[in-house]
Amino acid sequence: MSVVSAITVTVPATTANLGPGFDCIGAALKLYNEFKFTRQEGGLSIHVTGTEAERVQTDESNLLYQAFVKFYQYIEQTPPTVKIEIKLGVPLARGLGSSATAIVGGLVAANQLEGATLSQSQVMELAIAMEGHPDNVVPALLGGCRLAATSGAAWEICDVPWHQNIVPVIAIPNFELSTSEARGVLPTEVSRADAIFNTAHLGLLLRGLETGNGQWLKTALQDKLHQPYRKALIPGYDVLNIAAVSAGAYGMVISGAGPTLLALTDKLHSEAVEAAMLAAWQEEGITAEVRSLSLDTQGAKSF
Ligand SMILES: Nc1ncnc2c1ncn2[C@@H]1O[C@H](COP(=O)(O)OP(=O)(O)OP(=O)(O)O)[C@@H](O)[C@H]1O
Ligand SMILES: N[C@@H](CCO)C(=O)O
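^ thats the input. predicted complex w/ L-homoserine below
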């Protein structure tokens, strides 16, 4: 492929962890950020539109631009000066992988501008190194639900089948929670009992997602590694959990590092689960947006 003058990349939101899969599993959702890079003479310019556009940095500290520069550092070239246009569809710092869209978007855009110099797995390795964990960037790049594991060298990526009847319902509150703050409350060591608990529940989750077995999913969505520590950062967590399950959800978990909450349900109950979660947060005095989404299967796309 040849070097091009402009490229547009769309990258899906992602929901990481899915309860027991802390830092190793995530799914791409049909909700997108769009990034356009155009080579230009002169300095860097960044224009942002969409919800909370004013919250995104428009100088060299912008994460999307940092990922763009990282690509050129990797191939040992000087980055071209560019105009960047960002259309935000993924809410910032809400647990829906906004930072992963920026990292994947910057790397994919640079790679496409340079005629696809790197393979998709090289781009993926760079993205994981930048984010520090694979569970958002991998599905953001590849689409679908993905499990990532490494023994220290390369990453092994596994496609996790997702039964067509399982609907993700996301409840996004009107407050932010940064990933660094939500990681800061976690213990550095866990007990053997909690490690065994999560190992068993992640195994059950994989089979539950594949088969749509509601009984398995109900048990599988439990976690002991991160949610017990993080739920205090999310007002109304317990009330929403009860409301979602009473309305027919298999269970409710924290999406990524939060504060968005994710319920998994079936097509029959998704509207009732949406209404119950919205009402529960309203009763707590919190404004939220609640939506049923479907899985993105394509990941980052460029054109
Ligand atoms: N479109 C974007 N362009 C540039 N920077 C972005 C963009 N989206 C997010 N960021 C950066 O990422 C930060 C949010 O990252 P953070 O990891 O805290 O949340 P998140 O990725 O939305 O949530 P999670 O990792 O839990 O899914 C923002 O404050 C901003 O600095
Ligand atoms: N696995 C990560 C996802 C958010 O980046 C966490 O829960 O901290």
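The domain at 166-292 is CATH 3.30.70.890 (Alpha-Beta Plaits).
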